[in-house]
Specification:
Shape: elongated
Strand order of the largest sheet: 5-2-6-7-1-8
Order of helices and strands: EHEEEEHEHEHEEEEEHH
Low-confidence stretches: 201-211
Number of domains: 1
Largest sheet: 6 strands, parallel
CATH topology: Rossmann fold
Structural class: alpha/beta
CATH superfamily: P-loop containing nucleotide triphosphate hydrolases
Number of helices: 6
Number of strands: 12
CATH architecture: 3-Layer(aba) Sandwich
Helix content: 25-40%
Strand content: 15-25%
Radius of gyration: 19 Å
Oligomer: single chain
């Protein structure tokens, strides 16, 4: 990024499919800020406990301590006024309110760095990331490697039977896929197959509990 005047805030967004290195890039930028002796605070959604409950951890094992939040508005509640750089991982889990919170922080003169999935398991834009991409000063789109054919991958393929928008998981539950190998209907087909194997009583119990 070009040199900016003192006290000017801005938003940086890092997007891509799973296994593309988003969290690793976020951690790299935050480490550099710490080395420069800038005051840094880091947040991640409490729902994401795949590798650690108290750290942002990349799939390659890099980690950096973070605070858990359940909703985007908690960021402003927890921010130290002296903080200069704010890191947010898995932004897609925080919903549309993250856009307003990130804008407020940038307007306060903070450097805000957000990492997240830009598309969901069906290949659709994953709210709120498209809006964040539109208002950010800097955008980085990372590619993974398709786990089927080795081509550049832009999609996250869900491998488990679920049609819920948010299903937290990693290897074994998701794969990076290229445009050609991605199958948006796979999770739906697996859900139908799973339901067809249930007894009538099991299907009724599942519907009554909303699962």
């Amino acid at each position: 990024m070009d040199i900016v005047k003192h006290n000017m805030g801005w938003i940086e967004v890092i997007v891509g499919p799973m296994f593309s290195g988003k969290s690793e890039e976020l951690i790299r930028r935050l480490r550099r800020a710490e080395i420069a002796r800038q005051r840094v605070q880091i947040f991640k959604p409490a729902i994401d406990e795949r590798y650690s409950a108290t750290e942002i951890v990349s799939h390659s094992g890099l980690g950096i301590r973070s605070d858990n939040i359940s909703k985007a508005s908690e960021i402003l509640e927890k921010i130290d006024p002296r903080t200069e750089v704010i890191g947010i991982d898995e932004g897609q889990f925080l919903g549309e309110p993250l856009v307003e919170e990130a804008t407020k922080l940038a307007n306060m003169g903070k450097r805000v760095i957000i990492a997240g999935l830009d598309t969901d398991y069906l290949g659709r834009p994953f709210v709120p990331m498209p809006t964040l991409l539109a208002i950010a000063e800097e955008i980085t789109k990372l590619l993974a490697i398709c786990m089927r054919c080795g081509n550049p991958a832009v999609h996250t393929q869900r491998l488990v039977a679920s049609e819920d928008l948010i299903v937290v998981g990693a290897g074994g539950m998701y794969e990076a896929r290229c445009r050609r190998c991605f199958d948006a209907n796979l999770a739906h087909e697996k859900s139908m197959q799973s339901e067809s194997k249930q007894t009538p009583a099991q299907r009724l119990a599942a519907r009554s509990t909303g699962s």
